[in-house]
Amino acid sequence: MVRRVRIKDHWGERRIFTIRGIVAGVIVAMSLLTVAARLFYLQVVRYNYYSELSQGNRVRIEPIPPSRGLILDRNGVVLADNMPAYQLEVVREQVGDTAQLNASLKRLVAIGLLDADDLPDIKRTIMSHRVYESVPIKLQMTDQEMAVFALHRFQFSGIDIHTRLSRHYPFGPLAVHALGYVAAISARDLKKIDPATYAGTTLIGKLGVEGAYESQLHGTPGYREVLVNAAGRPVHKEGAYRPKLKMRPPVAGKDLVLGIDIRAQLAAENGLAGLRGAVVAIDPRDGDVVALASTPGFDPNEFARGLTDKQYAALENDPDKPLINRALRGAYPPGSTVKPYYALAALHYGVMTPDETIFCPGYYHLPGSSHLYHCWRHRGHGSISMRRAIEQSCDVYFYNVANKLGIQRMHDFMSAFGFGRLTGIDISGEKSGLMPSPAWKRHAYKDAANQVWFPGETLIVGIGQGYMLATPLQLAHAVATLSERGIAFKPRLVIGIRPPGSTRLVRLPVDKEPGIAGITPDQWEVVDEGMEAAAQPGGTVANISVGAPYRIAAKTGTAQVFSLHQNQKYNASQIAERMRDHGLLIAFAPVDHPKLAVAVFVENGEHGGTIGGPIARKVLDAYLLPDKAAPPRTKPMTGPAP
């Protein structure tokens, strides 16, 4: 069989290859032309559009925190305002992962801007915020600290210095327990607040007026669009294609006007200088708190700047307890300051008459008992009536009153004056004190032996000792009610609110309480006369009225820190300072038309008249005779006063 051989057509193959090459070249050329045309379209024809669009991708929305409302005293003196400050802030998403964040924080410790002990709290705060939020880690930086960071700024991504408004208290520690303070928003705070409302805000009210009126003081945040570079830092873009940036201004917080009179507050704190104690002064006509002092105090500016853990621990562990508001939280035996109220109760219930006399030999004992209850004056007062018993603070007289009244009537009558219950003041932290009764004791003690109320316990409560406890605020509220003869108002610090940008003050309505009914004018007069006599020569607090151009009614009190044995005598020289008696005093003036009621408490102050009288007098003079009082250290704010 013959095999057939096919001859290769070289010319035909070359022609096919040439045609295919031409087609491929045309396709490539057309593709290149299409790409070139598209590039021309994007880079030339639509240059303006895409240039502006690319810039828009570099726009970041930043919140603008509102300016916090001011706090002023009743005469327009600024007690809390705002000042510009520089603070170090971190944006987590710009820093990187957790390892990079930790490294950055350690570098800040290395250059001296952060304390290593504070790192756990700082990390916890950073992680509690969203990744794109700017979180403050160093408040109110000094010039030196800013210079240090500027030298090392290239080492940090997502960490920068920002200008903010920070809280400032011109008078420092003055009235700190009334005003409270602001501090950095913590992880706990974030669980209670709306993050959108606090966008860009670094500080929040913690205590006092700052905490109680946080919603009024805070305001509403705004926002602005900002051009940023690849590192997330703001840049200023110049040229024709700068995008139009939007902005919504924030709304400032409302200003608060307090009932506090800065002169009276200064007088109270100057009187308590170097002592542990409290002073509360109330205008009995409306319940305005004119002075609220607790010493020792602390500088709230330190909290606004940011305390380290060591600094806060030093305050918390201070044996004098400067963080405790003794005016609201200090519950102490009221001592003899309660005697005017028991005298009034005796008249109200008809168990005693004003001119009925009782013989005071210096001691008292219950019928059938040999136990002696001593009077503070061991040789006794002799025959004594109600007015003089108030003037001389005779214990034996009020042992008799207590025995005749009985604990239940004492409890009911004193409760009407506010003892044993909250006054309802408009800041938090108040304690209710204790006005004991048989029912209270049954619930307080589980063992049957201690559930019985003993007659001797009634006598001790009759001189403000034993189970009875009261706060300085309760004492001031009660004496304010006494001075107004039963008309009572709920104590308040804030008396008015001023909208942002307005000169119009919106006064808050007073909160009138039920008060005391069923007591005749003559009965009120007996107590007033006894208290006024106590403030005159021969009374227990004669030093309070020396040279006063107005009439003063007062009553002293001494509260034991520990109980004495039957025949044991109190000797201050042999007792540690912190175990000595507390000194108390209540007063109001003018007697004929009361304008101010004052309660003074000095821890371990021993004699209420000796130590409390001059303090109360300074406060009374500062409020009733303002022209003679020391001027405040800062000028009043221009604008309307309440």
Give structural attributes.
642 residues; alpha+beta; Penicillin-binding protein 2a (Domain 2); Beta-lactamase; 2 domains; 7-stranded mixed beta sheet; 5-stranded antiparallel beta sheet; elongated
Topology:
Elements: H1 10-45, H2 47-56, E1 59-64, E2 71-72, E3 78-91, H3 92-95, H4 98-110, H5 119-128, E4 134-138, H6 143-151, E5 159-168, H7 176-179, E6 182-184, H8 187-190, E7 203-205, H9 208-212, H10 214-218, E8 222-227, E9 247-248, E10 255-258, H11 262-271, E11 277-282, E12 289-295, H12 300-305, H13 309-316, H14 326-329, H15 339-349, E13 358-360, E14 363-364, E15 373-374, E16 382-384, H16 386-392, H17 395-405, H18 407-416, H19 438-444, H20 455-461, H21 472-483, E17 494-498, E18 506-507, H22 521-534, E19 553-559, E20 582-589, E21 596-602, H23 608-624
Parallel strand pairs: 2-10
Antiparallel strand pairs: 1-8, 2-3, 3-4, 3-5, 6-7, 8-9, 10-17, 11-12, 11-21, 13-16, 14-15, 17-18, 19-20, 20-21
Helix pairs in contact: 11-23, 15-17, 15-22, 16-22, 17-20
